Amino acid sequence: MAFEDHFSGHAVDYAAARPTYPRELFQWLADQCRQHDLAWDVGCGNGQASVSLAHWFNRVHASDASAEQIAQAPANPRIVWRVESAEHCTLRTHTVDLVTAAQCYHWFNQERFNNEALRVLKPGGLCAVWCYGISRVSREVDEVYHELYGDVLGTYWPPERRHIEDGYRHLPFHFDALGEIPRLEMSEQWTLAQYLAYLRTWSASQRHLKDTGRDAVSELEARFAAAWGDPAATREVSWPLSIRAGRSPPAD
Length: 252
What we know:
Elements: H1 11-17, H2 23-31, E1 38-42, H3 48-53, E2 59-64, H4 67-71, E3 79-83, E4 96-102, H5 110-120, E5 121-132, H6 139-152, H7 161-165, E6 176-177, E7 185-190, H8 192-200, H9 203-212, H10 216-219, H11 221-228, E8 235-247
Parallel strand pairs: 1-2, 1-4, 2-3, 4-5
Antiparallel strand pairs: 5-8, 6-8, 7-8
Helix pairs in contact: 6-11
């Protein structure tokens, strides 16, 4: 399957405006791993998850098919950045303790990625993929949000978006599932400008802009502002996380 690039054209904005993952997620992932030598962060984008993993693992191999996204990643002595596909990487067989894919598993050829992750993972190593979908602010803000998400941009979402909406439940995942996975969410304290900047990083927002020449977020900005209140005031924006995690087969 060819690489479908929905984000390179606005990689700088993506790096600046996307929410971050909670520390508790990486603490939990580290706790599930027997060793903490090497993690592979697949589809790493600008490295949000990679940098967090570097606090818990001695080395992180962070890869993305987009050179533009990798160019936005920060220097870190524990992280090696690589422009590589999710389905084929340069890591040696059975050398990886943890494989992660944050908000990107739906873009992969899942069968080929699963095979590659099983190849590089140590026996009993962990693979975890996760995504976040609909955000929450308040009833008033969320009402405008849903109009933008569904009514205005509905036809501009790529078909893979449905897998985020169902929490990756129907995608192939060839690992021995963990029995208990924590219920976690992401949370940011944002001003209105920060919130709108995030909405503009959506792939559907960018496709709408390219096709029509109109910024759908700007067209609803006055309604967002009325629902938000003081635009300089910070409000909590939250997203529930959907996580799938499992182990590679143990050694014979």
